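Sequence, please.
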């Protein structure tokens, strides 16, 4: 399977009807999603200026991405840095990581140089997901994180037979 992140560049906002907060208090995020799919699969979960995402679409896209991330080695407890702008894609990645039990480590995309290196050093991630237009910024800071083994760049495909033993793989 190929890892494919759907590029968007616009701010996202939760829909007013989304009962995310109250449901989160009663269980896991994946349980919340399953509940909502059972009761209202076509209800809008998230609306942004570039489109909207229903509960069923979110589930399907997050499940597909979770399978792809698992294929490249993301497991429960794996620290995954997200160097992404606010987008539907970022939300999908977040749900995929929650599904896998991975640790979601968002990084402010305005950080540069030594500030970004510091965050990477402290986070000590094994995997990073980065927007294509931010790749060069992250690349310049990679020396700060020797534990980083895989970088997934949005808008690109991961070859299904990629060598998982490669120390740093950019896709």
């Amino acid at each position: 399977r190929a890892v494919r992140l759907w590029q968007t560049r616009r701010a996202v906002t939760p829909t007013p009807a989304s009962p995310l907060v109250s449901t989160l208090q009663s269980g896991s995020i994946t349980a919340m999603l399953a509940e909502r799919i059972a009761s209202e699969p076509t209800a809008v979960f998230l609306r942004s200026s570039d489109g909207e995402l229903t509960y069923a679409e979110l589930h399907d896209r997050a499940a597909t991405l979770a399978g792809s991330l698992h294929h490249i080695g993301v497991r429960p407890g794996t620290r995954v840095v997200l160097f992404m702008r606010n987008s539907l894609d970022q939300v999908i990645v977040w749900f995929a990581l929650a599904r896998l039990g991975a640790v979601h480590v968002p990084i402010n995309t305005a950080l540069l140089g030594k500030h970004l290196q510091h965050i990477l050093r402290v986070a000590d991630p094994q995997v990073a997901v980065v927007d294509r237009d931010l790749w060069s910024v992250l690349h310049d800071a990679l020396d700060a994180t020797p534990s980083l083994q895989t970088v997934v760049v949005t808008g690109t495909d991961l070859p299904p037979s990629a060598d998982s033993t490669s120390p740093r793989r950019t896709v």
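The chain is about 40% helix and 20% strand.
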